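Minutes, project check-in
Item: structure for the 314-residue chain
Input as provided by the requester:
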Amino acid sequence: MTSLGKNSAQDERIVAIALDDQMVYAFFVLVHSLVKTKKHPFHLIVGYFEGRLSVENRGLMSAFLEHCGQSAEIRELVPHPLFTERRHLTITTFSKFVISDAVAGAHLWIDLDTIARDGWDDFFDTLNSTPPSIPLVVAAKLESRHTRFDGFNAGVLGWTRGPRVEWLPELTNLPEKRFSSEQHLFNTLYKDNVDRVDVRFNFLSSWHEHSEELARASIIHYSGPLKPWHLTRRHATAWKKVNPSWSSWFAAEAELFQDVAGTPLAKPIKTLARQAVFSGRLHTGKGALAGWVLRTLAVLGPLGNPLVWWLAKR
């Protein structure tokens, strides 16, 4: 475990995230956005499963956290044999269960494929006042043609001081190839006993047509297999018409680059940015086409411009 400036006063506001080498670049964009838009100090717990995050990347993360002056600890986690991978999801998605078992106090879990904007840490106002009889605080969802799930989205979760529900028996009973098992688990275990906060704390990028809700979103969640870092930046302007929520991620990335410019962090972080374009897990199952489109754009370079403009006009 690597610890950076932890102190008990900040532990009342704890944020937990997790990553692997495949998603490491998103760490820098998200954490920078959290730090730059916070109203109050917070302590960050960063988890990774053993063998899934290189020593080099851990070192770069530690240097970046020190650069940001962020209180943090980097924890190695042990995965359960039942954690499986499916389509674009790796076993890292299950780390929220492992961390919640290890951290008994209240804390806010945020998926790595998000960015934070002003007001994100207002979440703690509800989280710290929710009684232990309610174990979980989740964001409301929008009723939209793009809302294709029951219950709540598990990308942003507020764990209260209440006891955790045992998840292993339910995971054991799931079919081995169930897609998004952790989403199913949360809605099975907690659906009848959660508190809900405003949708602005977990605004899914697929809801981008709701422009007023997007404008006030405090956490934008780029759920699904397509991530902004998979798009070559030459296409970012045209992509605003495809999904305007991606512009917020690119803006957060630009602020990151500006902050580390002229420091030893700049070169390795930009190297990770270039590598991240090709980091998507391609597959041939349901919803695979969009991933192949972004990979094709990355390979074509400027020759992909007509395809992007065609998508923007659809």
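Outcome recorded: The longest strand covers residues 43-49.
No further action items on this chain.
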